[in-house]
Amino acid sequence: MHRISIEQWRMFIAVVDCGGFAQAGDALYKTQSTVSHSVRKLEQTIGKGLFEVQGRRAVLTPFGESLLPAARALVSQADSLEHEAISHRQSVNATLSIAIDSLYPRPTLYGALARFKDCYPDINVQVHETVLSRTAELLEDGTVVLGIASAMPKNVITQLITTVDLIAVAAATSPLHSNRRLTLPDLEQECQVVIRDAGLRANMNSGWLGSHRRVTVSNVAELSQALAQGIGFGWLPVWAQQAQPLVEPLPLSQGLIRTVALQLGIQEHMADDERLMLLQKLLLEPTDGHSMR
């Protein structure tokens, strides 16, 4: 299949604007023979003539005239794309995309990012909030270079970053607080607010879904808000419960705490990147005054 290059269209336009092949060659810093050969190849590919030589001028044929507006638009778009790609190359290279599970303490996350930006103010950071299997998918797809979650895919470098304690809570006004000997079977009769898995290819179950009546939300922040409004009970990270004065821990007689181990994973090819190494170090260091538990 014959293809016409952008450069051929560029020479075609130059001949039109300059009035001849020699003049077009001067404008494009090419020889007249190079321009003539390129336009001839263009005409052969199309199967019709584009110019008629009148004296020393190259004049468009009616067919050539009909192609000129589209040719100008095509070359203009190609020039714009090239300019945009070059001008944004540095900013694209200066972006770190990370995926952080909703359970990871937000005060710790944003404290780490604040300190990171002090060291690298020109680096753009894209944060993807994830739940359960979504972090692994983003790492597998190469969308992010660093992720924090309870499960990691193969072919990434991982390490335990922290454990997060979750406790059963309900609104302070909930009648569940009146039962001083509340058991896990008791909770199975209540409405449970749960967080859905954000994964697109698979769905993980936390294993704590004992209730048949549920309200499903997207992240820890929504879970906290739903519980504060009195929609049943849920397992909330301790750090989130401490930031939500409208909910209180339930008086369970057993199973008071559920613990989730979170791992940090980075793409293997980025392991020696000094920016990523610093961000990893900061995420491993809890912000002063904010415990993981």
Compact description:
This protein is of the alpha/beta class.
Structure write-up:
The protein has 293 residues and is of the alpha/beta class. The chain has two domains: 6-87, Winged helix-like DNA-binding domain superfamily/Winged helix DNA-binding domain (Arc Repressor Mutant, subunit A); 95-283, D-Maltodextrin-Binding Protein, domain 2. The chain is 40% helix and 24% strand. Strands 3, 4, 5, 6, 9, 10 and 11 form a seven-stranded mixed sheet that branches. A two-stranded antiparallel ribbon has the order 1-2. It has a two-stranded parallel ribbon with strand order 7-8. Helix 1 (6-18) crosses helix 2 (21-28), helix 1 (6-18) packs across helix 3 and helix 2 (21-28) crosses helix 3 (32-46). The relative contact order is 0.14.
Number of strands: 11
Which percent bin holds the helix content? 25-40%
Low-confidence stretches are 287-293
Average pLDDT level:
88
> Order of helices and strands, N to C?
HHHEEHHEHEHEEHEEHEHEEH
- Using only C-alpha atoms, the radius of gyration works out to 31 Å
Query: Tell me about the biggest sheet?
Result: 7 strands, mixed
CATH class label of the largest domain: Alpha Beta
Secondary-structure-based class equals alpha/beta
Q: Estimate the strand proportion.
A: 15-25%
Outline: elongated
The appropriate CATH architecture of the largest domain is: 3-Layer(aba) Sandwich
Which descriptors would you attach to this protein?
about 290 residues; alpha/beta; Arc Repressor Mutant, subunit A; D-Maltodextrin-Binding Protein, domain 2; 2 domains; seven-stranded mixed β-sheet; two-stranded antiparallel sheet; elongated; disordered C terminus
